[in-house]
Design goal:
Elements (H helix, E strand, L loop, with lengths): L6 H14 L11 H40 L4 H11 L5 H10 L1 H11 L1
Helix pairs in contact: 1-2, 2-4, 4-5
Length: about 110
């Protein structure tokens, strides 16, 4: 009985990985063993950074709210505490946008809190 090798699937797998390696520099784009490792590492980074992106944006929003609040003589924690107490249900993303792009609207919120 002849030896059975699934070359169709093997070639398809290699093609799929090399397609993902498109745009990489040097051997990483066309040598199977190097490309396989580079693509694997890239996918790990992609997974990790999808999570990190959420943290980064939240951090940015907090900085913007803090800057806006301090212009009106309040700290970030004081501002957020008062918004919760006043029942203002705007999330950090919206508050940060108001602080950065619509200072008059942000000022109205601050006046309501004081």
């Amino acid at each position: 009985m002849p030896r059975s090798v699934n070359s169709v699937a093997s070639r398809a797998k290699r093609k799929r990985v090399l397609k993902l390696a498109k745009g990489f520099f040097g051997r990483k784009k066309n040598v199977w063993t190097v490309a396989k490792n580079a693509v694997e590492k890239g996918l790990v980074y992609a997974y990790r950074d999808r999570k990190a992106k959420k943290r980064d944006f939240r951090s940015l929003w907090i900085q913007r709210i803090n800057a806006g609040a301090r212009l009106h003589g309040m700290s970030y924690s004081e501002f957020m505490g008062k918004t919760k107490k006043a029942g203002i249900e705007l999330n950090r993303k919206v508050l940060a946008d108001l602080a950065a792009n619509h200072p008059e609207a942000f000022e109205a919120i601050v006046k309501k809190l004081k």
